[in-house]
Amino acid sequence: MDYRTIRLDISPAAVATITLDRPDSLNALNGALIEEVRMALASLPGSGARCLVLTGEGRAFSSGADLVAGGGLPADVGEALETHLNPLIEDVFALPMPVVAAVRGACAGAGCSLALAADIVVAARSAYFLQAFINIGLVPDAGATWLLPRLAGRARAMEMMMLGERIPAEQAVEWGMISRMVEDEDLASESHRLATRLASGPTAAYALLRKLARDAEQAPLSDALGAERRAQTLAGRTDDFKAGVMAFIQKRPPAFEGK
Predict the structure, then answer these.
(1) 207: domain CATH number?
(2) 3-state secondary structure 201-221
(3) Cβ contact 160:152 at 8 Å
(4) Cα–Cα distance between 52 and 86 in angstroms, integer?
(5) CATH code where residue 171 lies
(6) Across residues 165-182, what is the average pLDDT?
(7) What's the CA angle centered on 221, arms 218 and 222, to 5 degrees?
(8) Bigger pLDDT: 86 or 75?
(9) Helix (H, G, I), strand (E, B) or coil at 58
(10) Arithmetic mean of pLDDT, 152-160
């Protein structure tokens, strides 16, 4: 498919890369871009891809929702969430493969939520994370009020959301919001190194793990234990499990095939 606001590439190593491609607007999220990302995500199962990298073209990951393109204040600000942004975040969480976000420059608003929905976030030193909704009289959205307290803790999340100030990449690592920080020139190589490693891993187990982690955020311990037991039964029936055990016995690296 020909995309106008994103790029989708799948490498020989089974790594898919979705690049937000509106650099003149710092990859602001308009309706067209959001829908193209959703279409790209929907195309990945069955494509041969086994890991996804989300990134932005140019000097930013994303400046957040496009407030300029709308041509004025909408009558219902929440409507765009229901029809576009919320389904996008749900799609990222539902994807049956690991997701790595590679972030440089601005990562703001809904763009920040999109990046933090990834399993592993690699940020360049130039990156900063921002929830500036309060500065225009709005509340954080696209899952920010769910994600941030779980990643950074309630106190830090409330400070970030209430003060509307930038959180530099180095501070985001300290807060536990993201996985790691690298120099700007190393962002692409480090994120793709991680993605290539994940793409060679046990894909079915990764899919089960992602669902367990999400569901466990809201479940009592007893429910989480039961979910783990059911998922482990499924994982134990995969070819990857058999291959992993044989590799362990034979003291060699496993060759997972994602099934």
Answers:
(1) 1.10.12
(2) CCHHHHHHHHHHHHHHCCCCH
(3) yes
(4) 19
(5) 3.90.226.10
(6) 96
(7) 115
(8) 86
(9) coil
(10) 95
Task: Report whether pLDDT(248) > 70.
Answer: no
What is the full DSSP assignment across 191-203? HHHHHHHHHTS-H
Structural domain that includes position 105: 6-199
Tell me the Ramachandran region of residue 137: left when phi exceeds 0, alpha when psi lies from -120 to 50, beta otherwise.
Answer: left
Q: Which amino acid is at 175?
A: W
Reduced to 3 states, what is the DSSP secondary structure of residue 55? strand
With CA atoms as reference, report the closest residue to 98 among 211, 7, 177, 175: 211
Give the C-alpha separation, 14 to 21, whole Å: 21
Residue listed under structure tokens 């229901």: 82
**Within-domain flag for 187:** yes
Average pLDDT taken over every residue of the chain: 89
> Domain for residue 155, yes or no?
yes
Looking at per-residue pLDDT, the higher value among 253 and 195 belongs to: 195
User: How many Å apart are CA 84 and CA 76, to the nearest integer?
Assistant: 13
User: pLDDT (tens digit, 9 = 90+) per residue, 110-132?
Assistant: 999 999 999 999 999 999 999 98
Per the structure block, which two tokens stand in for 135? 């500065």
Alpha-carbon gap, residue 228 to 234, rounded angstroms: 10
The amino acid occupying position 251 is: K
Is the Cα torsion angle 182, 183, 187, 193 positive or negative in sign? negative
**CA 162 distance to own-chain centroid:** 23
Structure tokens at 36: 């193209």
- Single-letter amino acid code for the residue at 227: A
- Strand 128-130 vs strand 106-108: parallel, antiparallel, or unpaired? parallel
Q: What pLDDT band is residue 258 in, cutting at 50, 70 and 90?
A: confident
Q: Which of 178, 199, 220 is where one domain is finished?
A: 199
What pTM was computed for the model?
0.87
How many structural domains is the chain composed of? 2
